[in-house]
Write a structure and sequence with these properties.
22% strand; Endonuclease I-creI; 40% helix
Length: 103
Amino acid sequence: MASFIDAEGCITQNTGSWRISVSNTHQGVMEWFASFGGSPTRGYQPKNPKAKRVWAWQVTSNLEVYRLLKALAPYMKVKREWAQVAIADLESTLGELPAVAIA
C-alpha cells in the first residue's frame, strides 16, 4: 500500500485539511484500498474514449489521514518527507495518536 501511494497517489493539504488520493485502472486494487477506510471507490471514464475506466479512492478525514500515514510513512520512498510533514502538522492539531494496523 505504501509503495502504491508513493507511486500513484497524492498527499495534499488545503486549508488545514489533509487528503490522500489514489487513482488507477484496476477496480479490485482500489476496492482493496477502500477496505482500509476512506471513501468508497468511484469510477469514471476519461474523455478519451480509448482510455480505460479509472477508479479513484481518497481519505479526507484528518484523523484517518494521520493514522494511515503514521503506519505507511516508514515504508515510503518518494513521498516520505511530505508524509512526515503531514504527520507533524496533524499531530500539532490532533495530538499524537496510534497508527492504524495495515494487514
